[in-house]
Specification:
6-stranded antiparallel sheet, globular, 639 residues, 5-stranded mixed sheet
Length: 639
């Protein structure tokens, strides 16, 4: 509100100014203005007191209105979730909506939901929202571990303001590593209850310290109750479907042979439908399980019984193995896995043929999925190759190609050069290791909305740089993730951040050259399996950087001293020059500067406080002298 507006208000309408502020939903700070203006104008004490009372009352009204709006939003979200539950069709969609709404209303960085797995005796991550760590999203936890274990044991909500400093629950390396990857600090966990039993936990978490209010804990508890109801409803639907399937199978027993043939035809149609709508191998296994009245599972080749699997591939038919049946999933002589029918020793020829046909469909789906993944990897590699070779300079086309891969060339990126470190038995094993590295890099690029390509015996990645990350952080994280994926050390050199890649694609090649120089420097320094950027190598980084960042080196090395001299008009830089010229002797330095030796000592003490106590060690002293020389060359008139 303007000064004129406040002055024009009649003295008897003290509340009018605050009613107007309430009407236009002004910020809390704006409510101080009428009082401040009245005081500045020397208004009578009675008017100022009236304004103070009106202000406090208006702020109470504003707070009440905000609380009501918040409660209205919460009730609306709960109503929408209840509506989703009433029309439950897809449990995953309902749980995802619950987690999204909990995160949105609490304003947290992350929300997630875990469920117990009685079969495996552990807990797994079911739904996440706001998570950026692949390891965190795939966590499986032992019962009773972590904050979730404390919630499950006590059946009550628990809050931790600082996860890693909280000793109330059992910390494990696996959970702590996942939480650290995600960067979480404050976590709220609320149990999902079905009767007296805890079936999971709903979490809301922040990447900074935070205190969760009682109303927020109650809101998450309401969402947890709805999530438990959704899971219970889905279980009842599953049991109903299973009961219906059981009745249908009982009916099939009394059918004649023609009904069996008709069932086989129906299986064929269902498998064809699965293929057409893009189903997966587990969808095929589920469909065949229903038809064969048994449990059909897809098994990796190395997890299936080797002898039975080889016999099935050689004969081209499903073979019996104890009480199970094994059907090889193969293509072009390559074993891709097996379909295993559990606990069903009696199998008529029609059902055996159904299992074999399902194995054939499974092999087609696996080959299609592999082809799609390889095609996307090739497209990502081709775009990065074009950027490195600067063949396609049309910014519009580059942006369009990147957008199709969910990459943004207008964002700030870092170019990473990655190479395997470890002995290879022969050329074939080395080639296989390089393929694994390329595959892992492609997966990392896809999850981070970046690009990857095989190049120069290693892999090059173009990854976006997060706001609070540095090139060094990205390099070290990539080295760790790629090394874990390929089970051997991977060294990663990073460029300085680069921008505007669509308009200036040639900067990618320059940045790649810088990343390779950092990679070679790591090998020379014996730091195989590590990640680093040019900024990590001190003055050696000047030689490694594609663009000689002299000012950046000077600023990192003696910047505090330069700033101190500029602000205070002191002569610390001149004293440092003389000190090193005089062989680091305070006595000779005072003669060169024509000052008392105590003055030299005081200045050097100030330098130590600005640069750190180790500034006179040989390595630091060498960098400081180089920075002083570069500073003099850049600004000779300052000497």
């Amino acid at each position: 509100m303007s000064r004129d507006h406040v002055q024009s208000a009649p003295s008897g309408s003290t509340e009018a100014a605050y009613l107007e502020l309430l009407a236009r939903d002004a910020s809390a700070e704006a409510y101080e203005q009428p009082v401040l203006l009245a005081r500045a104008e020397g208004g009578p004490a009675e008017r100022i007191a009236a304004l103070e009372r009106a202000k406090l009352l208006a702020l109470r009204v504003r707070s009440e209105l905000e609380g009501r709006r918040r409660r209205e939003a919460e009730l609306s979200a709960l109503f929408e979730t209840a509506h989703d539950l009433a029309g439950l069709r897809d449990l995953d969609a309902v749980l995802q909506a619950i987690v999204q709404r909990a995160r949105s209303l609490l304003g947290t960085d992350v929300a997630y939901l875990t469920l117990n797995d009685p079969a495996r005796g552990d807990t797994y991550m079911r739904v996440t929202e706001g998570s950026v760590s692949a390891r965190f999203q795939q966590l499986r936890l032992g019962m009773g571990e972590g904050l979730g274990g404390l919630v499950a044991q006590s059946t009550r909500p628990y809050v931790t303001d600082d996860y890693f400093k909280d000793a109330r629950f059992q910390h494990t390396l696996t959970i702590d590593a996942g939480v650290r990857d995600e960067g979480l600090v404050a976590i709220l966990g609320v149990p999902l209850m079905l009767g007296p039993h805890v079936i999971g936990v709903l979490f809301a978490a922040d990447r900074r310290a935070r205190v969760f209010e009682r109303e927020q804990i109650a809101l998450v508890g309401s969402f947890a109750a709805l999530a438990a109801a959704a899971i219970d409803t889905a279980n009842l639907l599953t049991e109903t479907r299973a009961a219906l399937a059981g009745l249908e199978r009982a009916n099939e027993i009394i059918r004649d042979r023609s009904a069996v043939i008709e069932r086989a035809s129906d299986v064929h149609d269902r498998l064809a439908e699965l293929v057409l709508r893009g189903g997966g191998v587990h969808d095929v296994a589920a469909a065949v399980s229903e038809v064969l009245d048994g449990t059909v599972e897809f098994s990796e080749a190395d997890a299936a019984p080797a002898e039975a699997l080889e016999a099935s591939r050689a004969e081209g038919h499903a073979v019996r193995h104890g009480n199970d049946w094994i059907a090889a999933v193969a293509a072009g002589g390559e074993l891709l896995g097996a379909l295993v029918l559990r606990g069903h020793p009696g199998l008529d020829p029609v059902d055996q043929r159904t299992l074999e046909r399902a194995a054939m469909v499974t092999s087609l789906l696996l080959l299609a999925r592999r082809s799609a993944a390889e095609a996307e990897q090739r497209v990502r590699g081709e775009l990065l190759d074009d950027l490195l070779d600067a063949r396609d300079r049309d910014p519009r086309l580059l942006r369009e190609r990147a957008a199709r891969l969910h990459a943004d060339l207008d964002a700030t990126h870092v170019v990473l050069a990655a190479r395997l470190d470890g002995p290879a038995a022969d050329a074939e094993e080395e080639a296989a290791a390089r393929r694994r590295l390329w595959s892992a890099a492609s997966h990392l690029a896809a999850t981070r909305h970046g690009l990857a390509a095989a190049r120069d015996g290693g892999t090059v990645l173009l990854l976006p740089l997060a706001a609070r990350d540095t090139a060094t952080d990205l390099a070290r994280r990539a080295a760790r993730q790629l090394g874990t994926a390929v089970h051997q050390p991977v060294t990663v050199g990073a460029s300085a951040p680069v921008t505007d890649l669509a308009t200036h694609p040639e900067t990618v090649a320059t940045a790649y050259a810088e990343g390779r120089r950092c990679l070679e420097a790591l090998h020379l320094l014996g730091r195989a399996g590590d990640g680093a950027a040019a900024e990590d190598f001190g003055f050696l980084g000047l030689l490694l950087a594609g663009e000689r960042d002299i000012s950046g080196f000077v600023d990192r090395t003696i910047g505090p001293v330069v700033s101190y001299d500029e602000r205070r008009g002191t002569e610390l830089l001149r004293t440092l020059d003389a000190y090193f010229d005089c062989g680091m002797s305070p006595a000779r330095t005072k003669d060169a500067l024509h000052v008392h030796v105590n003055t030299v000592a005081q200045r050097l003490e100030r330098v130590g406080r600005l640069l750190g106590g180790d500034w006179q060690t040989p390595a630091r002293a060498l960098e400081i002298q180089l920075a002083l020389r570069l500073h003099r060359l850049a600004a000779p008139d300052r000497r």
